[in-house]
């Protein structure tokens, strides 16, 4: 049975009060193409979401909300017309189609291709979405997390636990004959703690989720996340000033993939390369990384936060190889960039909502595993930094320069992880860092459902992943004089 909610259903779904069938969709597409557009698509979206925040021993907030609408896109050459409405009555939808059509001025009206319903994969088929679970059950999860964090150590002075959830129903109809429906569930759980001792204060967090059910907590309970956050905060109370300078750095598996995502992944999105603004523009076939590195974007991972059955242009995403053994072999494409490069779209056309036009975006971006055991990698480091958890960062897409802060990191001395460090920044260049990858672990991990990617004002859920990575030289911005 496909994923669905018993409480929330799209009005445009079959049997709904504003059902969109083939005939109605074809009428709207004909209007969108009436003044000479080359291509048009319709993006119907219904999103129901909610959130709970437990803080200072009480449920501070609880919310539920619904947004819905239709976005109409018309393309004429490289130009795009876009309009959206928040109603599904005929007059509103017709007006949106006519507005988007104005990008085209003249030329014969192109008839849409007869529609066919796409058969999609089932990468997140769920028996019951979290939005259908009673609120009290979810509140108890937050209370359990708070209690476990406080019980971990007397120096935990503040605990905040949260849960965000949504279900997103989509109908995508294109003038080249595709009609696709998908229901995308999403949940994220988080615990943030503050520890204080001897006038020192540290924050730490842990969280996870994905396109999954409440069964997620059978594997990683609220108590597990609470202990992870509390243990990190207590440990970092003893953190010492970080050294500064160029040194070896080892990145932990999993969430360290956010550095790859930001410093390399965005530069491989094809719109930047179509416009020539990425440092990877014109580099297909060239060595851009160590020959140890193979980078993929993979939307097919089961129930991962970045996985999708269909992209927001009606194309089925696949696992795309971007860098193979150091050589740049491809970009992530939407329809517009694929046409430019005379390729098939890779299923990376994504948008935040019906109010936004799609563009090339990552799904789950991974650096594949190598052959070394993680302990073996650490043993090769004379003096360096072990980066375990990343905070915020800044990246220049045009050249790949980045600065990332670390929320959890350790000194490595004579092949052993020793003192926790504070005030650590990693400063470098994405392509340069990939060229300096000297060892890769056999322990590739995927982030546990926490990352959201921003681009041009739009946010979408993504996954990142990598094995343990040794970088032979990177600039560490520390605070130790």
TrEMBL record:
Annotated Metalloprotease TldD/E N-terminal domain residues: 40-104
UniProt cross-references to SUPFAM superfamilies, sorted A to Z: Putative modulator of DNA gyrase, PmbA/TldD
UniProt keyword list: Hydrolase, Metalloprotease, Protease
Domain Metalloprotease TldD/E C-terminal: 245-478
InterPro entries, per database record: Metalloprtase-TldD/E_C (IPR045569), Metalloprtase-TldD/E_cen_dom (IPR045570), Metalloprtase-TldD/E_N (IPR002510), Peptidase_U62_metallo (IPR051463), TldD (IPR025502), TldD/PmbA_N (IPR035068), TldD/PmbA_sf (IPR036059)
Keyword ATP-binding listed: no
Domain of life: Bacteria
Coiled coil segments of this chain: none
Domain Metalloprotease TldD/E central: 132-237
The keyword Protease appears for this protein: yes
Cited PANTHER family: METALLOPROTEASE TLDD, UNCHARACTERIZED PROTEIN TLDD AND PMBA
Family (UniProt): Belongs to the peptidase U62 family.
Protein name according to UniProt: Metallopeptidase TldD-related protein
Organism: Pendulispora rubella
